[in-house]
Design a protein that fits this description.
- This protein has 492 residues and is α/β, with parallel strands linked by helices.
- The chain has helices at 12-23, 85-104, 119-127, 132-143, 147-164, 199-222, 242-256, 274-282, 297-302, 309-321, 340-353, 370-374, 386-399, 430-437, 470-475, 477-488, and strands at 2-7, 28-30, 44-53, 56-65, 72-79, 171-178, 180-181, 193-194, 226-234, 261-265, 287-289, 327-333, 357-362, 403-408, 419-423, 442-445, 450-455, 460-465.
- It has 16 helices and 18 strands.
- Helix 1 (12-23) links the parallel strand 1 and strand 2.
- Helix 3 crosses helix 5.
């Protein structure tokens, strides 16, 4: 357990974020709480302090282990007194990062950056006409980002630039959530309900969803709004029947048939049939996602999948036969029990299948996942090799003609790494870029979906959350539609 003592400030969240980079899900409690009275001595005290003296400010971090280890500290000195709150937070984070890096002998690839969207910083710097080498130095000096992650960030930002350069408030993207799966994967933290147990809710849910799509979309079309991309995710959208897919897609196409890109996730091969793929193709799906995560059969069993790698291959070639020429495949690095050989096997299959997109995820054990219920430390046994497998993966994909085009990060990722989307030339997924860089309004439909309306003049977002619980979503659909229309009326 970690006790955190704050002296001269109250930025607990910012300091805790840095501590978690080094110590993961170790419990952090604020020093002085009554909950700490029953401590048994197996804990450390970490202090974060601001001291001002003689026109200087000292940002001091210290670490003391109550099991007898040495006390360490690191102080960052700034001339000229207190900075603004943003700069103060950053100085405190740098001080804590330098201290914990010294104690653990670790230098993290993303330095003090803890946010989901590090590429936003690069876009801001490009907007100031900074050159590549200047950006690398800035990321290293200000955030302690490693050279390779700084260069990767620039490469991704340049790939995204043409899609986000000139935002148009009348051009949006659409997200539609289908919260059903055949079974729940052990690592998954998304909203998904086993379809066999929830079959009585499928039709009422789709009815409510299509009501929401129709009413809100009609409002948007009346305002002259167009969709650049439409993305159907989940869950697993292909969990529902071919007939239900046709009805849903018909509802979407009534309003958004002219979008540049129309993606549907068919992530689980055990949900893919010829009839469903034909329904998707006939209704205009231009991009399909078939997500193996791994091509190792033993790992597929361990993560809770009900199919083997042969079904993945069969589903992929079936989609190709039916005319799908833009397919994404996901893989996850750091899955329990997997090492270099298993990752090499998956990469070899990626090279043979040759999908247009490969999205590489680093395992992150979230609170809502089955793995977290089993053990929050699940997957740590292979944590040490995740960096190596990520480098192997990047090199292999780039060697086969893929380039990175979008990137994001999550809490509790193995070795504090990242998720990266790779694609062949001109096969970037527009939706993935827009949802990450947040320079376009994303209107989302379905349980637990989040609409984000972008106000360009103020460079800010407003969000509207749909209810997570399926029964409550269905029961309160009109209220959720009203809230969405109220938000949209501020922009259109």
């Amino acid at each position: 357990m970690i006790l955190l003592k704050l002296i001269g400030h109250e930025y607990m969240n910012e300091i805790s974020d840095i501590i978690k980079l080094f110590f993961g899900k170790e419990v952090i409690r604020l020093y002085g709480n009554s909950e700490n009275d029953d401590m048994n001595g197996e804990y450390v005290l970490i202090e974060s302090e601001i001291i001002t003296a003689e026109n200087k400010t000292f940002y001091k971090s210290s670490y003391c282990c109550f099991t007898g280890d040495k006390t360490y500290d690191y102080t960052l000195v700034k001339e000229g007194g207190l900075l603004n709150s943003k700069e103060v937070k950053k100085a405190l984070k740098v001080s804590m990062y330098k201290l914990l890096s010294k104690i653990t002998d670790k230098k993290l690839p993303w330095g003090i950056l803890t946010g989901i969207r590090p590429i936003k910083i690069v876009h801001q710097l490009l907007g100031k006409n900074m050159q590549k080498d200047e950006i690398v130095h800035y990321l290293k000096d200000e955030y302690y980002v490693s050279d390779d992650r700084a260069l990767l960030s620039i490469k991704v930002a340049l790939a995204e630039e043409k899609y986000i350069r000139k935002p148009d408030k009348n051009q949006i993207s659409i997200y539609i959530g289908i919260p059903f799966c055949p079974t729940r994967c052990n690592y998954c933290s998304f909203t998904s309900n086993p379809i066999d147990k929830s079959k009585d809710l499928v039709q009422p849910y789709l009815d409510a969803l299509m009501t929401e799509i129709s009413q809100v979309s009609q409002y948007l079309r009346n305002k002259g709004v167009k969709a650049q991309s439409v993305y159907i995710g989940g869950g697993t959208p292909t969990s529902i029947s071919a007939e239900d897919l046709r009805k849903l897609l018909g509802c979407i196409n009534e309003f958004w048939h002219s979008s540049e890109e129309f993606t549907c996730e068919a992530g689980r091969p055990d949900t893919i049939t010829a009839d469903k793929l034909k329904a998707l193709k006939s209704q205009g799906i231009t991009r399909l996602s078939i997500n193996p995560q791994t091509m190792d059969d033993e790992t597929l069993i361990r993560i809770g999948r009900k199919h083997d790698h042969a079904q993945i291959i069969e589903s992929f070639y079936l989609a190709r036969t039916l005319g799908f020429d833009n397919i994404n495949m996901d893989m996850i690095l750091g899955l329990p029990g997997e090492g270099l050989e298993e990752v090499k096997n998956t990469l070899n299959w990626m090279a043979r299948l040759n999908p247009e997109n490969v999205t590489v995820h680093t395992l992150a054990i979230k609170r809502a996942s089955i793995y977290n219920e089993i053990s929050p430390d699940m997957g740590k046994h292979c944590d040490d090799m995740v960096y190596e497998t990520m480098e192997l993966t990047r090199e292999a994909l780039e060697e086969h003609g893929y380039h990175p085009y979008y990137l994001y990060r999550q809490k509790y990722m193995a070795q504090n790494l990242e998720n990266i989307g790779f694609c062949k030339k001109d096969k970037e997924c527009i939706y993935n870029i827009q949802i990450m860089e947040e320079k376009q309004s994303i209107i989302a439909f379905g349980a637990d979906s989040v609409s984000k309306v972008f106000f360009q003049e103020e460079d800010r977002l407003e969000r509207q959350h749909d209810i997570k619980d399926l029964k409550l979503y269905i029961r309160n659909i009109e209220d959720q539609i009203d809230k969405k229309l109220e938000l949209l009326s501020k922009l259109f």
